[in-house]
Amino acid sequence: SQNYDTILELSNQNQIKTQIDNYEQEKRKFGMDFNVAIMEEKLDNIIKSIEKFENNHDSSEKEDSNIQSSDQLNEMTELFNTEIKIIENKIIEKNSLVDKLTKMRKECLLFSYTTLVETLKSKVINYSEFITSATKFSKEYLEYINNSTDSLNDDIDTLQTKYNLNQTKKHMVSNITDITNDNNNLIEKEKEATQTINNLTKLFTIDFPNADANMLYNNKLQMTYFYSQLQKSIESIKQLYRKIRAFKLASIYLINEKYSDISKQFDN
Question: Coiled coil: which residue ranges (predicted)?
């Protein structure tokens, strides 16, 4: 499906890029100053030192050494508690960062989602107007070609009867089958495009401020998919519209040429 960035205006793309860059910058902080392996190694070394010290202390029974040993044990225990406190503070800090990143991601998705919705709303309005115009033009052209052909042939009949212009052949629309097929194809593409527009507009109406990040992300993917499908339908309608316009111009020329041929017979 189409990348949603290509749908948006450049200014909107830049705003979204700035938000994403800020998010990525904050995310990089998560791994800074928090090497789990190093912290585990520090604690393990302190624990081993305490265990070794306690083993040596148990084998010693001198009173003066007991006082000194107690001070050393207290120092190691304090060092251990300090390292534990550092880890606790870093965990609190990282938890706050996780909350901040979660909020930033939601805000980024929400901004890109609402921007995409507003952009697509505008495009859908323009496409809907074009579809209505194209189908109306095609319908009116079919009516025109039938009515103008009938009118021309009625004139030929009247003139043949009144002036005996037997050499004037009736006007026939040689490509009427192609014109009818193109009109029918345009109607089918109009239905197809209208259904896609309905699918898109349903996604416009969700309560996105209260939607979770995953819903916003998945809906954004759906919108870009439906928009790419809509563009394909619109391109088909444009091709048929151009073809029908060309038919109309050719038909006008041929009918005028027929009337010109009839008028020339009165020059004799």
Answer: 36-63
